[in-house]
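wait is this the right file?? whatever heres the structure
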């Protein structure tokens, strides 16, 4: 639960602009895991827990196709007491998926470019 609180506090600090965002992709995650491995297995396990908490919190954001969007959609459908058109829901989820994959590709490209130019992701 402490890891979730850390992630939520960090997200709040990002939104309120108390800290600057330094996004990283899969290459950055691998590099951070390597750094933790140099400290020992306890550090790797702790980092893995923090990473899992981070994924859990971000999965609950109301962004299609994440679970938070599904919960928001279910709540909206409960308010209007009818189902949203399945085709419209599908298109919104596909669009969200494409945007999320584009973000991941962009972050990975940025990580690789930093690795080539600066030697660090």
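ok assuming it is, sequence goes like this
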């Amino acid at each position: 639960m402490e890891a979730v609180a850390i992630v939520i506090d960090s997200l709040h600090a990002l939104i309120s602009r108390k800290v600057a965002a330094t996004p990283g992709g899969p290459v950055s995650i691998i590099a951070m895991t390597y750094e933790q491995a140099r400290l020992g297995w306890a550090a790797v396990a702790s980092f893995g827990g923090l990473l899992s908490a981070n994924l859990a919190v971000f999965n609950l954001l109301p962004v299609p196709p994440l679970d938070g969007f599904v919960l928001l959609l279910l709540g909206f459908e409960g308010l209007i007491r009818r189902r949203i058109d399945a085709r419209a829901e599908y298109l919104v989820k596909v669009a969200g998926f494409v945007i999320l994959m584009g973000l991941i590709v962009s972050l990975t490209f940025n990580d690789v470019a930093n690795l080539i130019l600066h030697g660090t992701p």
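The chain has one domain: 2-118. so i think its the right one actually
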